[in-house]
From TrEMBL:
Organism: Nocardioides flavus
Keywords: DNA damage, DNA repair, DNA-binding, Glycosidase, Hydrolase, Lyase, Metal-binding, Multifunctional enzyme, Zinc, Zinc-finger
Domain FPG-type: 246-280
Pfam families in alphabetical order: Fapy_DNA_glyco, H2TH, zf-FPG_IleRS
Reactions catalysed according to its record: 2'-deoxyribonucleotide-(2'-deoxyribose 5'-phosphate)-2'-deoxyribonucleotide-DNA = a 3'-end 2'-deoxyribonucleotide-(2,3-dehydro-2,3-deoxyribose 5'-phosphate)-DNA + a 5'-end 5'-phospho-2'-deoxyribonucleoside-DNA + H(+); Hydrolysis of DNA containing ring-opened 7-methylguanine residues, releasing 2,6-diamino-4-hydroxy-5-(N-methyl)formamidopyrimidine
Residues annotated as domain Formamidopyrimidine-DNA glycosylase catalytic: 2-121
Catalytic-site annotation from UniProt: P2, E3, K61, R270
SMART domains xrefs: Fapy_DNA_glyco, H2TH
The protein, known as: Formamidopyrimidine-DNA glycosylase
Summary of subunit composition and partner proteins: Monomer.
Length: 285
């Protein structure tokens, strides 16, 4: 699944290549990715044709193309989505779902393609959404957003009795922190994920936030070059996840700090990985 750094790579890549281009035409090859658009596939295409792209923005794992008329093309990559750029005539991908034919300011045609095998992702035209689509206005900023408010995060987390790992995954508090980043940041901070928010100090929470930012930044740095080749793979299978993980997926492996085998426990239909020695569980209240 594309994690936030991959989505940021896509956003930044699109920003470099499609801003100031105009959408000449839209071809919906499968209706499912535009299922949330009440206009239907034909209306979706019609609402975008002729619109000029003025920016590419992101909130959590959602990205949107801001359009000159004030609307937005809002997208989510789901489990397997990709946004690809090609010169026209490049062979179609097997799972090509939506084709946008753009015209750059220089008059060059460019294809932007939404490719999605499993189709949990999707695209929708958000009326008036150029600044921030109302569909996602409830989602908090993420820690690598320059306008993320650390003090506000600390204040809100300290009012909650929930486990810190749940708080990290709460999209209303901080967005974009998936299971992997949460486990890695908690390991670095030597914090057990079950520690309640209201029992953590401000400095501890700020340190944790710093680790979240570092882990995301490292993933971003490793995934951040592929778009310039006009092709980006956002399947979440970047080398980062194979080489650099200290906790996530490391069950039974020695902790890189203390040598104690990493433990795995069930967590919200998924797993949590932690070092039982470096990350002590909380005492009960
Ligand atoms: Zn350890």
């Amino acid at each position: 699944m594309p994690e936030l750094p991959e989505v940021e790579v896509v956003r930044a890549g699109l920003e470099r290549h499609v801003v100031d281009s105009t959408i000449d035409s839209v071809e919906v090859l499968h209706p499912r990715p535009v299922r949330r658009d009440h206009r239907g596939p034909t209306g979706f295409a019609a609402a975008l044709a002729g619109q000029r792209i003025v920016g590419v923005r992101r909130r959590g794992k959602y990205f949107w193309l801001a359009l000159a008329g004030g609307d937005a093309l809002l997208g989510h990559l789901g489990m397997s989505g990709q946004m690809l750029l090609h010169a026209p005539g490049a062979p179609d991908e097997r799972h090509l779902r939506v084709r946008f034919t753009l015209r750059t300011p220089a008059g060059t045609p460019l294809e932007m393609r939404f490719v999605d095998q499993r189709m949990f992702g999707g695209l929708v035209v958000s009326a008036g959404g150029a600044g921030l689509p109302t569909e996602i206005s409830h989602i908090a900023r993420d820690p690598i957003d320059p306008e993320f408010d650390d003090a506000e995060f600390v204040r809100r987390a300290r009012r909650r009795r929930s486990a810190i790992k749940r708080l990290l995954l709460d999209q209303g508090l901080v967005s974009g922190v998936g299971n992997i980043y949460a486990d890695e940041a908690l390991w670095r901070a030597r914090l057990h994920g079950e520690r309640p928010g209201d029992r953590l100090s401000g400095p501890v929470l700020r340190t944790l936030l710093g680790h979240v930012r570092d882990v995301m930044g490292e993933a971003l740095a490793q995934g951040g070059t592929s778009f310039d080749a006009l092709y980006v793979n956002v399947n979440g299978e970047s080398g980062y996840f194979d080489r650099s993980l200290d906790a996530y997926g490391q069950e039974g492996e020695p902790c890189r700090r203390c040598g104690t085998p990493i433990r795995r426990v069930a967590f919200m239909n998924r797993s949590s990985f932690f070092c039982p020695r470096c990350q002590r569980p909380p005492r009960s209240r």
